[in-house]
Amino acid sequence: MVNYRYLGNSGLKITEITYGNWLTHGSQVENDVATACVRAALDAGITSFDTADVYANTKAEQVLGDALKGERRESLEIFTKVYWTTGPGGPNDSGLSRKHIMESINGSLTRLGTDYVDLYQAHRYDTETPLEETMQAFADIVRQGKALYIGVSEWTAPQLRAGHALAKELGFQLISSQPQYSMLWRVIEDEVVPASRELGVSQIVWSPVAQGVLTGKYLPGQPAPAGSRATDAKGGATMISRFMHDDVLTRVQGLRPVADELGLTMAQLAVAWVLQNDNVAAALVGASRPEQVAENVKASGVTIPAELLARIDEVLGSVVERDPAKTAEGAPKKRPS
Questions:
Q1: Are 26 and 55 in contact (CB under 8 A)?
Q2: Closest by Cα among 13, 16, 94 to 53
Q3: What is the distance between the alpha carbons of residues 10 and 204, in angstroms, rounded to a whole number?
Q4: How far apart are CA 208 and CA 98, in angstroms?
């Protein structure tokens, strides 16, 4: 079964392996398979589920809501997000304005079939809306009981500090950050993680397996396997492209002896690795087949000895991205339209 960790400086516990349905539900896999994956997650002891209104343009929330029907709501932790464009893409169909946030939470709750979400997250920072307006809207949603806690995704350390200060002023808790983090992508370590520790914020990390690269299934000098994310024209191939270079893939193959020594698969090693960071509350894992969920949860509770962590660093060497500026570089400079 899966271990629990506290989320930030709060009393909320979440499963350290959290099920996420980005790039799968409502798009890559059929609804019956998506439901089977959610059932497998529940069977494995996962009670925390992460989605967003933008995933498959709201369809992912609907699929998750349908899959969780009949479960005791109080036994689940459901997270969703707001920022990216939903609906037809009108001028107020994206961003973190009060209008978009208030309309989006109502839509999300309807699709998820619940009166509240445990965690409502700003999916990116909105450069076009005053932060005070955004945080006031979040404060009102918490007071209305539509969200219990507030989090953010891919915010820089200064943005986190500013948002946290306003949240405190307004009387609610900003407790989480959802960044990309893996053995290959460590850009949060130098700035975001220290700021988060200082503020009582913890990480719910996405792509701990680097979009599948750290499973070891992509081999240097060989075409990507048919049906893999690297061949997915709906968005997967674009996301994974930064890692699809022979120097990266060759070094990843060098991790096999470490995984073998720990009795783990390569994917389990990757998930267990992010959980060694004490500021990480959970690793988000997705699945296109139910058996993948059962495999991923085996990373829960694993301790990687210091000498093996050092060996991982040595094997990966210079292909690891550590530049903290990448968080700001990858952020939208204006609202999508």
A1: yes
A2: 94
A3: 14
A4: 32
Q: How many CB atoms lie within 10 A of CB 247?
A: 11
What are the structural domain ranges in the chain? 4-329
Q: What is the mean pLDDT of the chain?
A: 93
Out of 4, 19, 55, 181, pick the active-site residue.
55
Instruction: Find out whether 321 and 186 touch, Cβ atoms under 8 Å.
Output: yes
Task: Report the C-alpha gap between 284 and 208 in whole angstroms.
Answer: 7
pLDDT tens sequence across 315-330: 999 999 999 999 999 9
Between 2.60.40.10, 3.50.50.60, 3.20.20.100, 3.40.50.720, what CATH number should domain 4-329 receive? 3.20.20.100
Cα 49 to Cα 76, 95, 159, 335: the distances in Å are 8, 23, 25, 26
Cβ contact 174:187 at 8 Å: no
**pLDDT tens by residue, 29-58:** 667 888 899 999 999 999 999 999 999 889
What is the pairing mode between strands 174-177 and 17-20?
Answer: unpaired
Hey, what amino acid is at 142? Answer: V
83 belongs to the catalytic site: no
Beta bridge partners of 320: none
Among all chains, which residue has been given the structure tokens 């539900």?
A: 25
- Cα gap 284→216, rounded to integer Å: 19
- 50 bridge partner residues: 20, 79
Rounded to the nearest 10 degrees, the angle between the axes of helix 31-43 and helix 59-67 is 50
Residue 152: beta bridge partners? 122, 177
Q: How far is CA 54 from CA 83, 108, 193, 288, in A?
A: 8, 10, 26, 19
Give the tens place of pLDDT for each residue, 144-199: 999 999 999 999 999 999 999 999 999 999 999 999 999 999 999 999 999 999 99
H-only helix segments in the chain? 31-43, 59-67, 98-112, 131-143, 157-170, 192-199, 236-240, 246-253, 256-262, 266-274, 290-296, 306-316, 325-329
